[in-house]
Specification:
504 residues, two-stranded antiparallel ribbon, 72% helix
């Protein structure tokens, strides 16, 4: 493993940037907006340097840096990336500047503080994806809660306090169980002569699979519950609609685009390779919850009157596909799950932006308030249709690739060994078409139901500029997915092999 400071630079830039923004004059809002966008774009450029320097043909982690931190506990500052974590880092650095740019016309109060929290949130998310020490990972996992809590609690809707507290308590409760499991796992490593007490993830990969089955089960359940809440997996999803509805548009975009992926990333990075026997044992049960979430999320989305809540419940359904792919335990499904993490971030992030744009103009998200606006705002209607079809999984757009690979993999899963999971999950694609196309039809077609809508203004150049990069990747992944699948093939195959070897 090579030493490289690039990962640390990527991690430190948003932290330094967030601290420096506090020195800017609060009255100069244009400067603060430009500064926040500039910092986030610099971070994105650094992540691109990392992407172009990454060698997908190599096994293991790259751009690794390891420094002694707490020697008495064998805790180190240990960071690096492989294909999976690099893809998640790129998603984070790509979504953040778009989210910041989307606030230029909507966030006006306490702008300096908002920019501070957004950059700190970006640092926390990047930290989660690059940490190779469980102690360091846990610090970033918890630290990320604080800025999102304030983003919802200060700049959110009328029930923002309730939503922010609910988000914080739900996530914190699961995190505490994970902390207990981390300590237990580190202590268990002491029984291994060649390892000793450690929180080094790569060393713990050797320890976890060798633990007694009942010990593995308890640790697996503690980790999985924490990640399931973050996903959110049914029935741990109830915090999500409140958080999405009350969060400002930028908060919803980051929440859907990146934060929820931290849960699925955790399942892939920790639960499967650390506790393979338990992962196999509980795979049918977790997959059953995932399938229930697909159907439940879709059915509840169908009856929503609020556009934002409809998109929020669609996340429960879409991430059910990701969890099913993870626990199908084969390379196709795993790659489908990983690419679907990215797809969901792009498509659902774009949907939240579109809802935010129309809300800024009318100050309502009620579907019944609209109707026939395609004639009034044709650019908005066209882009909303493309994004909706992407979320549905239309062939040629990004959503199809992920869902196809997941259904293919789950159909021939060596662990689930039951076609019923795939058949029921596939019906979720039909339900997605129902609730999204029905929402689109009621909003954009028919008669203009409200005279106020006749004066709606179409998307401006800034709003179109934000959507164009999302649309480019929506089409790119749909037409030529190997650009991104090639990054994760080795990681997916390695994780699956490490799990399935315990079946023999």
């Amino acid at each position: 493993m090579e030493n490289n400071y690039l990962t640390s630079i990527l991690l430190l830039l948003p932290i330094i940037g967030s601290l420096l923004v506090m020195a800017l004059p609060a009255a100069n809002k244009s400067l603060i907006r430009i500064y926040g966008l500039a910092v986030s774009l610099i971070i994105f450029v650094v992540s691109l340097v990392m992407y172009f320097g990454f060698d997908a043909s190599k096994e293991g982690f790259q751009f690794v840096q390891q420094l002694s931190w707490i020697p008495s506990l064998q805790v180190t500052y240990y960071v690096g990336v492989d294909g999976l974590s690099l893809l998640m880092v790129l998603l984070t650095t790509f979504i953040t500047p778009l989210a910041l740019l989307s606030t230029w016309s909507s966030i006006d109060t306490k702008l300096k503080e908002f920019t501070f929290f957004m950059l700190m949130l970006e640092a926390g998310m990047i930290g989660v994806f690059v940490s190779l020490d469980l102690f360091l990972f846990y610090i970033f996992w918890e630290a990320m809660l604080i800025p999102m809590y304030f983003i919802i609690g200060i700049w959110g809707g009328k029930n923002k306090i309730y939503a922010s507290i609910k988000f914080f308590i739900y996530t914190m409760a699961g995190s505490l169980l994970m902390l207990i499991a981390i300590i237990w796992l580190a202590i268990s490593a002491s029984d291994f002569k060649d390892v000793g007490f450690t929180t080094n993830l790569l060393e713990l990969y050797k320890v976890g699979p060798e633990l007694a089955r009942n010990v593995q089960n308890w640790m697996f359940l503690a980790f999985t519950l924490s990640f399931a809440i973050k996903v959110p997996l049914f029935p741990f999803h109830t915090w999500l609609p409140d958080a999405h509805v009350e969060a400002p548009t930028a908060g919803s975009v980051i929440l859907a685009g990146v934060l929820l992926k931290m849960g699925t990333y955790g399942l892939v990075r920790f639960c499967l390779p650390l506790f393979p026997q338990s992962a196999i044992q509980f795979a049918p049960y977790i997959s059953a919850l995932a399938v229930i979430g697909i159907i439940y999320g879709a059915l509840v989305a169908m009856v929503q009157k609020d556009m934002k809540k409809l998109v929020a419940y669609s996340s429960v359904a879409h991430l059910g596909f990701v969890v099913l792919g993870i626990f199908s335990m084969n390379t196709e499904a795993m790659q489908g799950a990983i690419i679907q993490m990215v797809n969901h971030g792009l498509s659902t992030g774009a949907l939240f932006l579109m809802v935010g744009y129309i809300y800024e103009r009318t100050h309502t998200r009620e579907i019944s308030h609209y109707g026939g606006i395609a004639k009034i705002v044709p650019v908005y209607a066209t882009l909303l249709l493309i994004v909706s079809l992407s979320s549905i999984g239309l062939p040629g757009l990004n959503g199809f690739i992920g869902e196809f690979l997941i259904l293919l993999g789950s159909f021939k899963s060596p662990v689930l060994n039951n076609w019923l999971f795939s058949i029921i999950a596939a019906s979720g694609v039909i339900f997605a078409a129902v609730y999204l196309l029905w929402m689109y039809q009621r909003v954009c077609f028919g008669k203009v139901t409200n005279e106020e809508n006749n004066s709606l203004k179409d998307l401006n150049s800034r709003e179109i500029l934000i959507l164009i990069p999302l649309l480019v990747f929506i089409v790119w992944i749909g037409v030529y997915p190997s650009t991104f699948l090639g990054m994760t093939e080795g990681v997916a195959d390695q994780i699956i092999k490490s799990v399935l070897v315990t079946m023999k």
